[in-house]
Write a structure and sequence with these properties.
The protein is of the alpha+beta class. It is 24% helix and 26% strand. The chain is globular.
Length: 311
C-alpha cells in the first residue's frame, strides 16, 4: 500500500482503530488545573487562549522524501525540493509533526483529534503526553475530530480494541461521519460502527460544539473536514486540521494542489483564505502537522506568506 493510500483512504478509521469495543467506565477524577511538567516535558507545551488553558500534546512525526511521487502529495517534486532547500532544510525530507490539542473549557476536558495511535510510522506518544499534562484518558469529556483519517482518529482505541477515552463524546461533522461510515462499511466494519455509534454526536457546519469552541468548515481535504475556533474574551485560536500540512509548502505555495485532498480546487481556495485571514487579523493558528508545538501566525512576506511560530 502506498503512503498516499495509508494516509488518505476513507477506511483508515477502520485500519487505525481495529475492532473497537466499549470498555468499563473507570472512576472519574478531576483533572489537575496546571500541567505538572509544563516547563520541562519535551512533548507538551502549555499556553493560554485568554482565560482558557490549552496544551499541545506531541504524538509523533512522519517524514518522507520530497522527490518520491508515491509518497509526496505535491506532484511538482522539483519545486517542493527547491523550496525546502531555500528554507534551509537540506535533508530533502518533508517533515510533518502530529500534535493533538488539549483544551480545558470550563468543566469540559476537550481533546481535538487523537493522533495515529502508533501507526503510520509514528511513536504513539499521545497518552504519555496527556498524562504529563495532568489528565487521565478517563477524564476527557469531549473528543473533537477534524476528519476521519488515521493520523487523526488512530488514537481513539488501543491495540486491544478498547476505547481510549471511555467517558468522552466523540464529535465530528455530519458529513464527515457519513464519509467515515461509508469507508468503514466498504471494509466490512459493522462491529466497529456498532461500537462507535453510541459515542458519536454529529454537528452542522459552523456549530458551537462547546461553550468556547466553534466548528469551522474548511473545504477540500475530506467532505466534512472541520477546523475549530477557540475563543476567550478578545483572544482566539484557529485549529486548522489538515487544511495545511507543511509549514513551508502549504504556506509559501498554497496554490499547489495537494494529492491528499479529496477535492483539490476547494483545498487551494481554503488555504488561500486562511492565509489572507490569518495575516490580516494577526490570528493565532494551530497547525496540527506544523513543527511542534504548532502555535503561531501567518505573515505577509514579499508577494506571499510565511509561517512565524510563537517563541
Amino acid at each position: 500500500m502506498t503512503f498516499y493510500a495509508r494516509i488518505a483512504a476513507a477506511s483508515l478509521i477502520l485500519a487505525a482503530m481495529g475492532a473497537a469495543a466499549c470498555s468499563p467506565e473507570p472512576e472519574k477524577r478531576e483533572a489537575t488545573s496546571t500541567p505538572p511538567a509544563a516547563l520541562s516535558h519535551p512533548d507538551i507545551h502549555a499556553f493560554r487562549i485568554g482565560q482558557i488553558q490549552a496544551v499541545a500534546l506531541k504524538d509523533g512525526e512522519m517524514a518522507f522524501p520530497a522527490t518520491n511521487r508515491e509518497m509526496s502529495p505535491w506532484s511538482d517534486t522539483a519545486e517542493v525540493s527547491a523550496l525546502l532547500t531555500a528554507s534551509g532544510q537540506a535533508d530533502g525530507q518533508i517533515h510533518l509533526s502530529i500534535q493533538p490539542l488539549l483544551v480545558r473549557d470550563g468543566e469540559r476536558v476537550v481533546l481535538i483529534d487523537t493522533g495515529a495511535g502508533g501507526q503510520m510510522g509514528t511513536e504513539g506518544k499521545l497518552l504519555a503526553s496527556l498524562r504529563a499534562a495532568g489528565v487521565e484518558p478517563g477524564q476527557v469529556t469531549d473528543v473533537l475530530i477534524s476528519h476521519a483519517h488515521g493520523d487523526h482518529v488512530g488514537g481513539l482505541a488501543g491495540k486491544d480494541g478498547a476505547l481510549t477515552f471511555p467517558n468522552a463524546v466523540v464529535r465530528m461533522s455530519a458529513a464527515e461521519w457519513e464519509f467515515a461510515k461509508a469507508g468503514a462499511a466498504e471494509a466490512g466494519a459493522a462491529p466497529l460502527l456498532a461500537a462507535i455509534t453510541p459515542r458519536v454526536q454529529t454537528f452542522a457546519p459552523g456549530a458551537q460544539v462547546t461553550p468556547s469552541i466553534k466548528a469551522v468548515p474548511l473545504a477540500g481535504h475530506t467532505p466534512g473536514h472541520s477546523g475549530y475556533e477557540i475563543v476567550s474574551g478578545t483572544e482566539r485560536l484557529l485549529y486548522i486540521g489538515d487544511a495545511m500540512h507543511s509549514s513551508l509548502v502549504s504556506v509559501q505555495r498554497p496554490e499547489l494542489v495537494n494529492g491528499w485532498d479529496s477535492d483539490g480546487a476547494p483545498g487551494v481556495t481554503t488555504r488561500q483564505g486562511l492565509l489572507n485571514r490569518g495575516a490580516s487579523e494577526s490570528l493565532r493558528v494551530y497547525g496540527v502537522h506544523f513543527p511542534f508545538p504548532g502555535v503561531g501566525r501567518f505573515q505577509r512576506r514579499d508577494d506571499g506568506f510565511v509561517w512565524v511560530p510563537e517563541s
